[in-house]
Amino acid sequence: MGNKILIVEDDKDIRDLTAFYLAKKGYEVDLAEDGLVALNKVKESKPCLVLLDVLLPGMEGYEVCEKIREELDVPIIFLSCKRSSTDKIRGLHAGGDDYLTKPFDMAELEARIQAILRRHSLRTVEKEETTHHLQIRDIRVDLASFDVQVKGKSISLYAKELQLLLFLMKHPNQVFSAEQIYQQIWDVGLYGDIKTVSVHIRNLRKKIEDDPANPSYIKTLRGFGYKFVHAQ
């Protein structure tokens, strides 16, 4: 699904301000001012998350949410000036993942977006594991045969490279230090050579990344460690 967020809001000022803020934070943004436009854009662009106003012209946000749920399993956050607990409950029952009342703080909105995307990523991983394969973006691992495919083509991995890949894919967007990875994969405490982690990650990147020098899957966070990026 990438990192596209669809903002469904009929108030132009709120719509544009929210879009500007999220774009600065690195998200791709798409806009809709009513429910019908939103439903078409959900089908066409398949966003990773929808910000949905309740009071929309023509079709209420609750109904839009229900129709989106029929098409796509995408996180939805309601944005509304309606503050009663009844309205919030109705939004959650319609299929919303969260409900934020206006006016809202942009930093809080971003924090909620990040939290919901993390939860959604973990749910996706759990669903895929029950079907005996694990897939994130263009990387697919058969958990029975341990065949690894990148963009439909099988690649050969050494045992530790495969263990490393599976560990990171099962914890998408979670940062692990080299020490934590070493303990998980090599299981010998901290008495070995921690540098072996960076060597294996470098070798793994050569096999799964289009550009190993600018990786899109396994990211390095200097001073913190590594993470496997679920949505690019």
Automatic annotation (TrEMBL):
Source species, domain of life: Bacteria
InterPro entries: CheY-like_superfamily, OmpR/PhoB-type_DNA-bd, Sig_transdc_resp-reg_C-effctor, Sig_transdc_resp-reg_receiver, WalR-like, WH-like_DNA-bd_sf
Post-translational modification 4-aspartylphosphate, affected residues: 53
GO biological process, one term: regulation of DNA-templated transcription
CC terms in the record's Gene Ontology section: cytosol; protein-DNA complex
MF terms in GO: phosphorelay response regulator activity; transcription cis-regulatory region binding
Lineage: Bacteria, Bacillati, Bacillota, Bacilli, Bacillales
Keyword Transcription listed: yes
Pfam families: Response_reg, Trans_reg_C
Keywords attached to this entry: DNA-binding, Phosphoprotein, Transcription, Transcription regulation, Two-component regulatory system
Compartments in which it is found: Cytoplasm
CDD domains membership: REC_OmpR (cd17574), trans_reg_C (cd00383)
SUPFAM superfamilies linked: C-terminal effector domain of the bipartite response regulators (SSF46894), CheY-like (SSF52172)
Organism: Paenalkalicoccus suaedae
PROSITE patterns, sorted: OMPR_PHOB, RESPONSE_REGULATORY
Record's protein name: Response regulator transcription factor
Domain Response regulatory stretches: 4-117
Domain OmpR/PhoB-type: 131-230
Entry keyword DNA-binding: yes
Start-end of DNA-binding region: 131-230
